[in-house]
User: Fold this.
Amino acid sequence: MVKIRLQRGGAKKRPFYHIVVTDMRNGRDGRYIERLGFFNPVAVGGEVPLRLDVERIEYWKGHGAQLSERVTNLVKYFNRHGEGVAPPRAAAPVSKAKEAPKQTVPSGETGDQSDKAAATEAAPAAEEPAADATANGDAAEDSTAKE
Assistant:
């Protein structure tokens, strides 16, 4: 069966699609019979987002070619708005996975273990000089008491 569908090109994260007529057994980006236009979903500025040869699409439909769902929507949009306007982006698919409950961190705590370790090491170090001073002070008092 002959299909009219999108063939992906472009760089990573910058898709560009050719609208092609191909045998459905061929791969997505494989061999095609005829190129009928292009679709640039990330067109910016003066770039043309959509160009189609509607006459050739009608010819292939007359010979039994099936349009993919996305190409059908692009052809309808092109017939209504023409070449200069970009079609609206499809909404992102909604995830069916349940969201985990948000965990709140008490104010003043970041949850970083290195901060807690540094704080516990600093606290005994601060207490030690006071303990030494008390011990030395006691020793000084004892020596004055003996004299």
Remarks:
- The beta strands are 2-11, 14-23, 34-39, 50-52, 66-67.
- The chain has a mean pLDDT of 77.
